[in-house]
Design brief:
The protein is α/β, with parallel strands linked by helices and about 375 residues long. It is about 50% helix and about 10% strand. Helix 1 packs across helix 9, helix 3 packs antiparallel against helix 4 and helix 6 packs across helix 9. It starts with 6 loop residues before the first helix and ends in a 6-residue tail after the last helix.
Length: about 375
């Protein structure tokens, strides 16, 4: 396989960071080899590609793969640390997004039972292109498949990882879906792509997905309605973003796709309630609260040394600080340590009979912070 075959890796490289097109093409074309010897999670990259030794989990595999392919283009240690922290959190959120405490055994399932996929195919794809072969899906664990893989014959199964699997001959071809990735949007978007690939090939599938995203003939209106009704809920934008990373839209095409989606979201009360709309210059775009939003606290902490004081926050905090200083000065008799005086002043400020406690300084800071996404 290649880097471009890894859904999350491709999504991260195309959607979350800004790489030069030539660099992006070079990275996506790197071969990825799995070797079950050597030290667990050791990665080696050379002119022959990237070799990953004995992967311990899909989360670690995705993290180490992205870190390794990006390392030649990140020179500063501070940048590497910052990206590393954020990247590991994103990989974990991607693989464990819908994690439930339950055991799952390898199971072959009819693709007709996946509502979002079967409905999109029967009501959008087939009316345009004709009959699509609804191949079965094998849900099985893997520490390196992201998220699905087309299995034409038994030779396509990794002999080391799937040596104990007894697959009936009549089940081929099928789609292997990694159930170690607990993310419905990730699984279902890749299942949809792989089913279309089985019938029409990779090049035609890219054209089909692009047509859906661009919104020709109001196709994406139907697509969003299907996703909304199929149980994906607020994850429908993640589903569409994974589709977009598969086809690598040009900048003008991205704008068209974003504007088309924005109109749909704004006109739907349910979708507008679960989706945040942001302004970026004169261009509007729809953004879901995803894992990056949850990283804002970490990013703010990293940027803190480069920021000056914020007047709205300083203005809000000043009355509280002045009140505390006055109490401490009033109590300071020169005999007790200043820390004890601060504790005593704080005890007097706290209303012990209140139903709810007073506001913490962190809360005041958060309410006056300007967030930008």
């Amino acid at each position: 396989m290649k880097v471009s075959d890894l859904q999350f890796v491709k999504y991260f490289l195309t959607q979350e960071i800004d790489l030069d097109d030539s660099v992006l093409t070079k990275i996506l074309d790197i071969p990825v080899h799995i070797d079950y010897s050597g030290i667990s999670d050791e990665v080696h990259i050379d002119n022959n590609g990237l070799t990953y030794y004995n992967p311990s989990s899909i989360t670690m595999f995705l993290f180490k793969t992205i870190e390794t392919v990006l390392s030649p283009y990140i020179s500063e240690a501070i940048q590497k640390d910052a990206i590393g922290l954020s990247l590991f959190y994103m990989c974990k959120e991607y693989t464990l997004h819908h994690k439930k405490h339950q055991s799952v055994i390898p199971t072959i399932v009819s693709s007709e039972k996946i509502i979002s996929v079967s409905t999109i195919i029967h009501h959008i794809i087939e009316p345009l292109l004709g009959k699509v072969k609804m191949v079965p899906i094998l849900y099985a664990p893997s520490n390196y498949i992201d998220c699905c893989k087309i299995i034409e014959t038994s030779k396509d199964l990794d002999g080391d990882a799937f040596k104990d699997y007894k697959i009936p001959h009549h089940s081929f071809p099928f789609i292997l879906c990694n159930y170690n990735i607990y993310n419905c949007a990730a699984q279902e978007s890749d299942i949809l792509i792989k089913i279309i690939e089985v019938s029409f090939g990779k090049n035609k599938t890219q054209k089909i997905i692009k047509k859906i995203l661009i919104g020709e003939d109001k196709i994406n209106d139907y697509l969003v309605d299907i996703l909304k009704l199929s149980g994906l809920g607020s994850d429908f934008i993640d589903f569409l973003m994974f589709l977009e990373s598969y086809v690598l839209l040009q900048q003008n095409e991205k704008i068209v796709a974003s504007e088309s989606l924005l109109k749909i979201v704004e006109s739907d009360k349910y979708l507008s309630g679960i989706t945040k709309i942001s302004q970026q210059g004169n261009q509007q775009s729809g953004n879901q609260w995803t894992q990056w939003s949850m990283l804002m606290g970490l990013i703010e902490k990293q940027l803190e040394p480069m920021r000056g004081s914020m007047w709205p926050t300083t203005e809000s905090m000043k009355p509280h600080e002045d009140k505390l200083r006055k109490l401490i000065r009033k109590k300071d008799d020169g005999e007790h340590p200043i820390f004890e005086e601060m504790l005593e002043a704080a005890r007097e400020l706290y209303n012990h009979k209140a139903i709810e406690p007073g506001k913490l300084l962190e809360t005041l800071l958060k309410e006056n912070r300007i967030w930008k996404i």
